[in-house]
Amino acid sequence: MWFADDARVLRRVASDLALAEACHRQARRPGAKQFVEHTLFYAAVDVGEREYYGLQERWPSSVLRRLTDIGSRIDTDLWESGVYNGYSDAKDREDSVDYPEGAELRY
Question: Which has more pLDDT, 29 or 48?
Fold first, then answer.
């Protein structure tokens, strides 16, 4: 289940990064900068969230490094901020779940 969901998310992230990179080259067009920032940030959020749930254990580092390289090439600070936010949001959601006392968690 995780692998299939990772594949769907990574495919969308790769597509978003390709689009953001193409628009970044034409940054002088109206709205291009805002579009690139939005697209890049939320692609990074998706990667950060998946990292919290173990993306690095399921996928080769070369695949993940390629996505990180593209995101960082466009805007390093924005990419890192998005990954951090995605990771911390997933962690916060996980920490805020109250399980009934005595419940067994099975994975």
Answer: 48
Give me the pLDDT at residue 30, please.
83
pLDDT for 42 equals: 97
Burial group, residue 13, by CB count within 10 angstroms (0-12, 13-18, 19+): buried
From the list 11, 97, 87, 10, the residue with the least C-alpha distance to 49 is: 87
Tens of pLDDT, residue by residue over 30-61, are: 888 999 999 999 999 999 999 999 999 999 99
* Alpha carbon distance 12, 16 (integer Å): 6
Which pair of structure tokens corresponds to residue 106?
């099975």
